[in-house]
Amino acid sequence: MIEGQLIIDVKRSSSDTTVTITSSRPLHASQLLVGKSPEQALKIVPLLFNICGTAQSYNAFRVLNNKKNYKNSAQQILVLTETLKEHLLRIFLDAPQLLNIKASDVNLSFVAQLVKQMQASILGGQPIFDFENNATIQQAETQALIDEIETFLEKHIFGMPINQWQQISTYHTLIEWSKKQQSIATKAINTIINNDWSSQAAISLQPLPALSVKELEIELDNDNAKHFIAQPRWQQKTYETTPLTRQRNNRLIKDLKEKHGNGLLTRWLARLVEISLLPLQIRTLLANKSATTESSQIAQIEAARGRLIHRAVVVNNKVKTYQIVAPTEWNFHPNGIVVESLRNIKTKTNSEYQKIAHCVINAIDPCVGYELRVS
Asked: 89, 108, 177, 269: most buried by Cβ count inside 10 Å?
């Protein structure tokens, strides 16, 4: 596994806050796939990329597959399950440390094994990312696991049926819910509100737009491709790709934005909104089990952290080019949303600044390794 991290340096004064980000992330680790056959490369990808490994494998499966059309419902279900798993682990594991609240006594083994359980349910444990796999999705087993997931969420996150929680559409009703429930999610929300951090780090939202395959091919096939991968911009602008950009049109998120901007509370709730929607999205894919996708040199998928882009060029059954643009590089661009968000934290002490900054970074990209230095 190849790892790296981000160094975030913050210099504060009475009049200004300066934020600088430097990266040691292995942005071109995908070069290890060059010269390999598509089958070999597909097996190597999950060994190289542990973070969002299922989404990485799914995109690799798509760009390395030489079939014109292929079924992909099972793979998409697994990606959504990984997103759910990552969101839940961040809530249960990170929120207590970030917000100084009591950790939940929930047994997290169910959450930690969600992807493996789903793989076992969908195809009886057979490899899902396999070019020759034509196994039929096991409907009953997968439905049963989705039922179990919903029961877990209703008991340990929402404290009520999911469809009932989704009716919460205003800040006022959110407060009513958070005061009645004693889940790790409500404790986190109440702490943010009680500390008066709801509007901290608010910025204008710049969602990453749809990127056409043709335009991406041009960007990734020119002499500036390495710089684009390291510090991506689109049409001379920096963009955000996060749960908040995906859920920005949700009624509750819109109401929170009206009251607190795209600040810490709004970002925190975007993750909860997404969690509430994932079981139904998985059910929808399960019902559409015969869905097919056309093969392409470029694949894009919304992973837990944001949009993940893969490009592969295969010549004579060997990988000639393999490129990956990760969501972290959009969000942690030197002029991107993390820099802008951290500049907009307003507090008197460096100690409180650090607490808020860690919460903001976690809400934007909970999986990235980083060191925060504030002076």
From this structure: 269
